[in-house]
């Protein structure tokens, strides 16, 4: 019986030694993984800092461009309004000519008199 107890204790000691060796190997691998993770996080922080700086510069440039475009649009607004007014005026003149042409008997030709040469001038409308 004593022999059996000795064998059991020996087997338990051997199993414990294998368990300790396995845990040591696992912990070493875990330490390597943690070191790589730390290195990766350090690189990631550097990259994020670099990207953040570039993004801030880009935002500042975009704001400058936006302000420049806004100023130029404000400078062009009076010109656009003037062109719009000219367009309205031309529309009114064209409408007036059309109305005058439709009032005449001959609706396809407008008869006017050239005062200098006393000859009629004809304008054909489509």
UniProtKB/TrEMBL annotation:
InterPro entries: UPF0478 (IPR009293). The keyword rRNA-binding does not apply. Keywords: Membrane, Transmembrane, Transmembrane helix. The chain crosses the membrane at residues 6-27. Residues 104-126 are annotated as: Disordered. The keyword Isomerase does not apply. Pfam families: DUF948. Residues 104-117 have a biased composition (Basic and acidic residues). PANTHER family: UPF0478 PROTEIN YTXG. This is General stress protein. It comes from Pontibacillus halophilus JSM 076056 = DSM 19796.
């Amino acid at each position: 019986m004593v022999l059996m107890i000795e064998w059991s204790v020996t087997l338990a000691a051997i199993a414990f030694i294998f368990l300790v060796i396995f845990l040591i190997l696992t912990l070493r691998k875990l330490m390597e993984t943690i070191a790589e993770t730390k290195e990766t996080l350090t690189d990631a922080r550097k990259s994020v800092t670099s990207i953040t700086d570039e993004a801030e510069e880009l935002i500042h440039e975009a704001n400058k461009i936006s302000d420049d475009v806004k100023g130029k649009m404000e400078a062009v607004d009076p010109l656009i309004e003037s062109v719009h007014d000219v367009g309205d005026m031309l529309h009114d003149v064209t409408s007036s000519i059309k109305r005058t042409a439709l009032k005449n008997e001959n609706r396809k030709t407008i008869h006017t008199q050239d005062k200098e040469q006393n000859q009629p001038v004809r304008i054909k409308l489509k």
